[in-house]
Design brief:
228 residues, alpha/beta, Rossmann fold, two-stranded antiparallel sheet, 8 helices, 10 strands
Length: 228
């Protein structure tokens, strides 16, 4: 898969596979192409070369089918109605899925509790801290119980305890068969992700390794440059 923006190569012949029940952390510095890759998989960008499929659906020929199987969270997500409550925001999202009202309400209650937001469920989102908004974004990403979870710097604003709790939740989701791809520029976070780590540098895959390398070793692998 390749993608250009004018004269800039954002992705160059990137090959990546995430199996059902697998967690893959995409590690790289800012500008490495991580968000571009996720946006292509989420069907908000089209690749210039090659292709991709998500959940067995082609991102170019079947974008609607892709969107039905993914959960998506961006760290800088601004897609909220700030003047209404977190509960109402989640229920609005559930209504867009076409779910029955009772099911939508129940799912919102479940997720607000899971992410420690039950006590603030009826506060307007404009009163939320950045960390609370991040937790709400993760709740929304899981709303439809997706088969594929795409997370872009989703834990950046979480405190260490919340981030550790979410990594445990990711492993539980993977154990249930969810395919999870998350991006991070944080070497320490990548080293703690319970899954495979793929390094991206200058729009190319630099390395792929199993869980276990230290932050120092991950830095060395990234500094060694892209493969090929």
């Amino acid at each position: 898969m390749s993608k250009r923006f004018g004269d800039q190569c954002a992705l160059v012949d990137v090959e990546l596979e995430v199996a059902a029940g697998e967690i893959v952390a995409l590690l790289g510095p800012n500008g490495a192409g991580k968000t571009t890759l996720l946006r292509i998989l989420a069907t908000t960008l089209r690749p210039d070369g090659g292709g991709a499929s998500v959940g067995g659906h082609d991102v170019i020929s079947a974008p609607a089918a892709v969107r039905r199987v993914i959960g998506l969270s961006f760290g800088e997500d601004r897609g909220w109605y700030l003047r209404i409550s977190a509960r109402r925001n989640l229920e609005f999202y559930g209504a867009l899925l076409g779910w029955p009202r009772a099911r939508v309400r129940q799912r919102a209650v479940e997720l607000l509790g899971e992410f420690g937001l039950a006590g603030d469920a009826d506060r307007p989102i404009q009163q939320y801290s950045s960390g609370m908004r991040s937790r709400l974004g993760l709740a929304r990403a899981l709303f439809s119980e997706p088969a594929v979870l795409l997370l872009d710097e989703a834990t950046t604003r979480l405190d260490p305890i919340a981030a550790a709790d979410f990594r445990i939740r990711l492993q539980e989701l993977a154990d249930e068969g969810t395919a999870i791809l998350l991006t991070t520029h944080d070497l320490h976070e990548a080293s703690e992700v319970p899954g495979r780590i793929v390094g991206l540098a200058q729009g190319r895959v630099a390395f792929s390794c199993a869980r276990g390398p230290s932050p120092h070793e991950l830095e060395r692998l990234l500094m060694s440059g892209p493969r090929g």
